[in-house]
Amino acid sequence: MKRLLLHTCCAPCAIYVIKKLTKEFSVSIFFYDPNIHPRREYNQRRDEMRGYAQKIGLDFQEGEYDSIRWLTATQGLENEPERGRRCDVCFDLRLAKTASQAKAEQYDVWATVLTISPHKDAERINAIGNRLAGQYGITFLDGDWKKQDGFKTASRFSRAENFYRQDYCGCLYSKAEKERVKHDRLKIYADKII
Ligand code: SF4
User: Fold this and answer.
1) By residue range, what is the domain housing residue 20?
2) What is the mean pLDDT of residues 78-88?
3) Sheet holding 25-31, edge to edge
4) pTM more than 0.90
5) Is any atom of ligand 1 closer than 6 Å to the C-beta of 171?
6) What would the pLDDT profile of 132-189 be if each residue is shown by its tens digit?
7) Residue 81 predicted with pLDDT over 80
8) Is 82's C-beta closer than 6 angstroms to any atom of ligand 1?
9) Number of domains the chain contains
């Protein structure tokens, strides 16, 4: 079986892709997500991912939580919306580390679970993955995992495992945006009942 290094961001996004890829590859999990803020949220997502990998007997590796590097790379893009230019930089940083790790450890192929999310543009993520594959000299397995009910199935698997499920993408900017939307909704509700 070929060895595949799989970049993951959280267990709910990863479970469906893992079930699919382990039929064909010997999969190792790579958790490299310095975008996640705050640190306790990072720990929670990582622990859930590591626990599931251990449960099903997969190798788990954790990249460095170099959040300063992430913040520096995304400087000037603080006000970009989700799916904007900040996300491209964020994908690039995480996928470049995965490609370099896969190359250094002589995997046959690497991939990411990021395209499972309906909020993420698979075309852009796959373009970044394929570019990095050329740069690092190691094959990228592209895919749009949300297709063919992938996201729905992932949600079902995730409920069955009782995974912790976050309500924002990961970075401090996406967290602030989520809180702003929640606050606006509450205000509308309060205005109606007062
Ligand atoms: S919204 Fe998500 S993908 Fe975009 S920069 Fe933040 S953490 Fe990264």
Assistant:
1) 2-193
2) 94
3) 59-62, 25-31, 2-8, 109-112, 139-140
4) yes
5) yes
6) 999 999 999 999 999 999 999 999 999 999 999 999 999 999 999 999 988 877 777 7
7) yes
8) yes
9) 1
| Sequence letter at residue 60 | F
CATH number at residue 110: 3.40.50.620
Residue nearest to atom 5 of ligand 1 (CA): 87
Residue 193 has pLDDT above 90, yes or no: no
Output the CA 62–ligand 1 centroid distance in Å.
Answer: 19
Please report where in the chains the tokens 């306790």 appear, as a residue: 40
Cβ(119)–Cβ(12) below 8 Å: no
Query: 10 in ligand 1 pocket by Cβ < 6 Å?
Result: no
| Distance of CA 168 from the midpoint of ligand 1 (Å) | 9
Interval between CA 191 and ligand 1 midpoint (Å)? 32
Q: Is 28 left (phi over 0), alpha (psi -120 to 50) or beta?
A: beta
Host H or E run for residue 8: strand 2-8
Q: Which of 8, 171, 179 to mutate to test the pocket of ligand 1 (most atoms within 8 A of CB)?
A: 171
Taking CA atoms only, the protein residue closest to ligand 1 atom 4 is 87
Q: Tell me: pLDDT of 194 over 80.
A: no
Q: What are the residue ranges of helices labelled H in 66-171?
A: 67-73, 85-104, 122-136, 150-161
CB 124 within 8 A of CB 17: no
Pocket test for ligand 1, best of 72, 86, 178 (most atoms within 8 A of CB): 86
